UniProtKB/TrEMBL annotation:
<comment type="similarity">
    <text>Belongs to the thioesterase family.</text>
</comment>
<dbReference type="InterPro" id="IPR029058">
    <property type="entry name" value="AB_hydrolase_fold"/>
</dbReference>
<dbReference type="InterPro" id="IPR001031">
    <property type="entry name" value="Thioesterase"/>
</dbReference>
<dbReference type="Pfam" id="PF00975">
    <property type="entry name" value="Thioesterase"/>
</dbReference>
<dbReference type="InterPro" id="IPR012223">
    <property type="entry name" value="TEII"/>
</dbReference>
<feature type="domain" description="Thioesterase">
    <location>
        <begin position="27"/>
        <end position="248"/>
    </location>
</feature>
<protein>
    <submittedName>
        <fullName>Pyochelin biosynthesis editing thioesterase PchC</fullName>
    </submittedName>
</protein>
Length: 265
């Protein structure tokens, strides 16, 4: 698996534009699962002209391979949010995170709210509520055990797992991703003022209905819980309706917002 070059016009701090949308009215930020990179969302680049999709590139992955890895998810979320803050106020923005990315997006929403930059919506996928996050020990296993877990969950591209040299290169950052998720604890603080939507597969053993409902305690705004047919891999099976759902949220957020590229000079 090669590391894709990323042109400068596709970079916004830690985020990578899937496809530039110079006339976008709203933006969707995508946070990958543990063991995944911004490239996981490459197939989501078909978003319409008025909504721009950007995926975060975690330190250690692809074009950030040489960067040091964060100590916890709060640090990861704060660094990504700070990178984006220069452009933040220009467009209404929806945050989306899958698996580990769900709580990373949640921590990013907390950071942004604390700095007066409230997201339009937070949409989380396949992860228990922050206060109900399960501890895990996968990151403490041997290299062989970690690789087997990655094969089972398909969290990392098979091209990496089938290449011994790539496994050797990427396993430390993958192990760190698992450590971040499995040791995550939500710190005390105010509840969000951002509306939350929870998505998950109805046959996924990694998140139970009451763990999804627990997200209602994370916000003082509305919280909607939606299920899809499927299990651990529901997001791959229902990519198109999820992209349409995110696009609709972003468009609603932009209806009353000023459009920067139509503003008078």
């Amino acid at each position: 698996m090669s590391v894709d070059p990323v042109s400068q016009d596709r970079r916004v701090g830690a985020f990578r534009r899937l496809a530039p949308r110079p006339y976008a009215r709203a933006r969707v930020l995508l946070f990958p699962h543990g063991g995944g990179s911004a490239s996981y969302y490459r197939s989501w680049a078909s978003a319409p002209w008025d909504v721009e999709f950007l995926a975060v590139q975690y330190p250690g992955w692809e074009d950030r391979y040489s960067e040091s890895m964060p100590s916890d998810l709060q640090e990861l979320a704060a660094a990504a949010s700070a990178d984006l803050s220069a452009e933040w106020r220009s467009l209404p923005t929806v945050l989306f995170g899958h698996s580990m990315g769900a709580v990373t997006a949640y921590e990013a929403a907390r950071w942004l709210e604390a700095t007066g930059q409230r997201p339009a919506a937070l949409i989380v996928s396949r992860h228990p509520a922050p206060e109900l996050t399960r501890a895990g020990k996968v990151h403490l296993g041997s290299d062989g055990e970690l690789v087997e877990e990655l094969r089972r969950t398909e969290a990392t591209h098979v091209d990496i797992l089938d290449d011994a040299s790539l496994v050797q290169a990427f396993l430390p950052v993958i192990r760190n991703d698992y450590r971040l998720d499995e040791t995550y604890r939500s710190l005390p603080g105010p509840r969000l003022r951002t509306p939350v939507t929870v998505l998950y597969g109805d046959r996924d053993p990694e998140i139970l209905p009451w763990e999804a409902e627990g997200w209602r305690e994370a916000t003082d705004d509305s919280c909607d819980v939606r299920t899809f047919e499927g299990g651990h891999f529901y997001l791959d099976e229902h990519r198109d309706p999820v992209v349409e759902f995110l696009t609709a949220h972003a468009r609603r957020a932009s209806e009353e917002a000023p459009v920067p590229w139509l503003s008078s000079p």
